[in-house]
Write a structure and sequence with these properties.
Blueprint lengths: L2 E3 L19 E5 L1 E4 L2 E4 L3 E3 L17 E5 L5 E6 L4 E5 L2 E4 L13 E2 L4 E7 L2 E4 L9 E2 L4 E6 L2 E6 L6 E2 L9 E2 L10 E4 L5 E4 L14 E4 L18 E4 L6 E7 L2 E6 L2 E9 L3 E9 L9 E4 L2 E5 L4 E4 L3 E4 L4 H4 L12 E5 L4 E6 L9 E6 L4 E7 L4 E3 L8 E3 L5 E4 L6 E2 L6 E2 L3 E4 L2 E2 L6 E8 L5 E11 L8 E7 L4 E7 L1 E14 L4 E8 L2
Antiparallel strand pairs: 1-46, 2-39, 3-4, 5-36, 6-7, 7-8, 8-9, 10-13, 11-12, 12-13, 14-15, 15-16, 16-17, 18-19, 19-20, 20-21, 22-23, 23-24, 24-25, 26-27, 27-28, 28-29, 30-31, 31-32, 32-33, 34-35, 35-36, 37-38, 39-45, 40-45, 41-44, 41-46, 42-43, 42-45
Length: 516
């Protein structure tokens, strides 16, 4: 009797029907692929303070950064729509600056049709199809970076650049009286210049400009005056039409995203200090935290697709984007966030979907093996990779903070009211023969890389549009199991029952039943 291997390539395919996804995974939740074998992602646990109480900021966290001070002690900065916090030594400290202008917890939309995604100086530009000219005002976003051992912070709603002296009795303070205001983003370059994006120039001589880049003297946050003799402070207005959104260090240059294009900010010294080279067009970013950097490359989510930069900006093919963008809650797109989980060579993108006002979905891209997983049902609003801490840190809409890839627990303490989430995956169909013969599946045979405990369901059918005609449950992925299924095509679903499983390339023992 012939054996049919169920050799399913890594990653999920959703850009089409289930039949178009034949021989591929069509649905996946909380799973990844490692060297071709599927397994569940790691679990998570809530970060505890010094009194062994779960860290809880109450409100959705819109930015997080970890860094080490000169003694090597780990610190974490976190921001909500109206507060900034530092977490160190198990103690959470409110370091919100005096006179801080709070932002919106959720984006707000005025009445009117709007164009999907386009920003205009920090607001979505509306009026699609001759529509009514409504506007969306963004939800709060925090930009954190490090300047030596000191954290640098900027909130979208406030527009001022702050630092913190690490003293818990002090709050964030403006880095310098002449530093730019009205900024929509901030970044520290590899050469140690603090850069304000989309704000004023030195001493606010000129009004805020959505394309202005302003920077301090090198390694000197106390001097933003371009007229200082021997200094290197300065400003530059980018050519073009898009408004600056955010920036990020990337090896020997700094990337600056607008809602329309991408620039590389490159240090040249001398009078000009920096050159600005447009390295991507029509590749604007969807939100101010929708980018992540890994392995010398940058990845980001745009308004209609994904992109990457490796010296040149280019589209990043995504086999699940037809599931993502039509379902995106566009009014809350300013909350989209991205970060890396480098141990698994992944970029995670969190976004609001299906009318949700919060980031309730995750998709991941494996940048070493070039495949996608998701969308997962998981609420996360901000995250950062391991490094300062032994595990990645992620946050949710209720202000909870988690260590990820930590143990096996998958308890969703906020969005799903302490419900344990369950990894699962479902394939598209497999043709058992040429398609014109009925085949009976007599046995399921696991391979040597398939182990652990998952419930496997096999479905057999006649045609892609038919309801399932035959189904067999009670199969464990690591055990040889006799089956009795008849059809022209088969698909499968696996659901975790016990932690520690992997799914490789099982086989089905089939026999020909003739035509029908």
């Amino acid at each position: 009797m012939p054996y049919v291997p169920l050799k399913i390539p890594p990653g999920v395919f959703r850009n089409g029907t289930k039949y178009q996804a034949k021989g591929r995974w069509y649905v996946a939740n909380l799973v990844r692929w490692t060297e071709g074998a599927m397994q569940a992602i790691g679990g998570w646990t809530q970060v505890q303070d010094s009194s062994d109480t779960a860290l809880d900021l109450t409100d959705a966290i819109r930015g997080v950064m970890g860094w080490r001070i000169n003694t090597g002690a780990p610190h974490m900065a976190l921001g909500t729509y109206n507060k900034a916090y530092a977490f160190a030594g198990g103690v959470l400290t409110d370091i919100t600056p005096a006179g801080f202008t709070a932002g919106l917890e959720d984006a707000t939309a005025s009445v009117g049709l709007y164009d999907k995604g386009a920003y205009d100086a920090g607001l979505y530009s509306k009026g699609a199809g001759g529509g009514g000219g409504g506007t969306i005002t963004e939800a709060q976003n925090w930009h954190f970076d490090s300047f030596g051992q000191l954290p640098i912070a900027l909130a979208y709603s406030d527009g001022k650049i702050y630092d913190w002296d690490l003293n818990v009795v002090n709050n964030l303070v403006v880095v310098h009286a002449g530093a730019p205001t009205g900024c929509k983003g901030m970044v520290v370059t590899p050469e140690r210049f603090i850069v304000g994006l989309g704000g004023t120039d030195y001493n606010a001589v000129s009004a805020a400009d959505g394309r202005r880049v302003t920077w301090c003297d090198q390694e000197n946050s106390g001097d933003w005056n371009p007229a200082t003799v021997g200094g290197q402070a300065g400003d530059f207005i980018l050519p073009g039409n898009g408004a600056l959104m955010c920036g990020a260090r990337n090896r020997n240059e700094t990337l600056l995203w607008t809602d329309m294009d991408l620039f590389a900010m490159r240090y040249i010294g001398g009078v000009l200090v920096y050159s600005f080279v447009q390295v991507g067009v029509n590749c604007g970013i969807i939100s101010r935290r929708a980018h992540a950097e890994a392995d010398g490359r940058a990845f980001w989510m745009g308004t209609r697709g994904f992109y990457m930069y490796d010296g040149f900006a280019k589209p990043l093919p995504c086999e699940i984007q037809d599931e993502i963008f039509p379902n995106l809650t566009e009014a809350q797109a300013s909350k989209v966030a991205a970060w890396t989980v480098s141990e698994s060579n992944e970029v995670w993108f969190a976004y609001p979907s299906g009318g949700s006002v919060e980031n309730n979905k995750i998709v991941t891209y494996n940048y070493m093996e070039n495949h996608w997983s998701g969308p997962w049902d998981l609420e996360r609003t901000a995250g950062m990779d391991r490094g300062v801490y032994d595990s990645p840190v992620m946050c949710d809409g209720g202000g909870d903070v988690y260590f990820h890839e930590y143990g096996d627990n998958m308890l969703d303490t906020d969005a799903n009211s302490n419900v344990a989430l369950v990894p699962y995956a479902e394939s598209g169909p497999f043709e058992l023969a040429a398609g014109d013969n009925l085949m009976t599946v007599n046995r399921y045979i696991p391979d040597e890389t398939t182990y652990g405990d998952c419930a496997l369901v096999l479905y057999a059918g006649m045609y892609p549009t038919d309801a399932v005609e035959d189904e067999q449950t009670g199969i464990t992925i690591g055990e040889i199991t006799d089956t009795r299924l008849t059809g022209r095509q088969i698909r499968l679903k696996i659901t975790e029952t016990v932690k520690g499983w992997r799914f490789g390339i099982p086989r089905l023992e089939v026999i020909k039943r003739g035509r029908r």
